[in-house]
From TrEMBL:
Its main location: membrane. Keywords: Hydrogen ion transport, Ion transport, Membrane, Transmembrane, Transmembrane helix, Transport. The keyword Transport applies. This is Uncharacterized protein. It is a multi-pass membrane protein. GO terms for cellular component: endomembrane system; proton-transporting V-type ATPase, V0 domain. It is found in: Endomembrane system. Belongs to the V-ATPase e1/e2 subunit family. The keyword Cytoplasm does not apply. Pfam families: ATP_synt_H.
Length: 69
């Protein structure tokens, strides 16, 4: 499995595709706009939280202080 930034972005993209297909092929037929919106928003929010944490670890604001002795 690919790791790193693009691997995880690909995972979230695949998750969005699976959820979209799940909305299309399950449940009642008709207007599924709200379900699509909720699934897309949930995946986007999870991806956004992941990217914020990932970027925060690339350049931490607080660096460890070495103490001699």
């Amino acid at each position: 499995m690919a790791s790193g930034f693009w691997g995880v972005c690909g995972f979230f993209l695949a998750l969005e595709v699976v959820l979209t297909l799940g909305v299309l092929f399950t449940g009642r037929k008709g207007n599924n706009g709200l379900r699509h919106t909720l699934c897309t928003t949930a995946v986007f929010c999870c991806w956004l939280m992941w990217i914020i944490v990932y970027m925060a670890q690339l350049n931490p604001l607080v660096r460890p202080q070495l103490q001699n002795g």
